[in-house]
Amino acid sequence: MSVCPGVRAFSLLAGAVIASPAPAKSLAIVDALVYPSATAAALPHASVLIKDGRIVAVGERIQIPADAEVIRCSGCAVMAGFWNCHIHFTEPKWENAAAQPAQKLVEQLQSMLLRSGFTTVVDTASMLANTAALRRRIESGEIPGPRILTAGVPIYPPDGVPYYVKESLPPAILTQIIPPRNPKEAAAAAELNIQNGADIIKLFTGSWISHETVLPMPEAIAKAAVTVAHEHRRLVFAHPSNLAGIQVAIASGVDVLAHAPDDTRDVNDTVLRKALANHMAMIPTLKLFSGATNIADIRRIVRRFHDLGGELMFGTDTGYLTDYDVGEEFQQLGKMGLDTVEILRMLTENPARRFGVQ
Q: What φ, ψ does residue 341 adopt, rounded to 5°?
């Protein structure tokens, strides 16, 4: 998906704008090419009126208040704000977010997220207290940034912290990651995350404990965490990795597969239909696997999930991947056969609906 050369693009979230101090007057973007939704016809020479930080009108004949700040946008394209449903605030540069200089955080958010149009992001694993501090600074209006939804610390299988997590995190942080050993501890871990501000729960239903081995999460542990999350009306994301990981996610009632399976062996239509019977969504994160020898098989599974009626949401694993460019994800989705409308749905309508946002 691309914007025509010479055309600037503005990305706005329906009902809200990127968090910033409340404006003293209305803001109007005028004379733009506006896409009201992924499927609605584009409106040439239209306006978007924002009042008190919320979009209140979109159309070609809007009464603009006399005191409104006006951005004239001939040659611009305006569309709904993008969601990135799989990111991480785990790089060292995010540490001590509560005390970092505001300008440094602004530059980092711009580079990682805002320049690509992401106005809502789902952090699928990080240190919860630190991410919550970053979110508070955005929500207070101190710094501009996206709406942040976070999982906080993920829940791993017993003795199942992934090898790449062990290799990348400082020992002091690793000691804080204690996988639950039984359903009671899993329920308590989910409850603690939610009480501390988590918006979703993330399970590693299939964890790569070595380059060759995926350890599945015991079904009872997964079910205990999912039960707590659903009691609090929280979605549950799962990192599946392979067939066994998908089967645990299905059996425990997980809502979203945070990745396509990268071990594709024996992942067939029967398994995918069972996932769909549970109304499960999938975040492909194809850029993450673009260098894999089986990338064509991964794309095939995502395409089959989509063709069977599965809901896809956009995500890049940005933050774990330190190359923030989103072009590769778009290219992989194109190779999979998705058109611009389908990709725009992944970026906007599908995640908004899944999270209950108007």
A: -60, -45
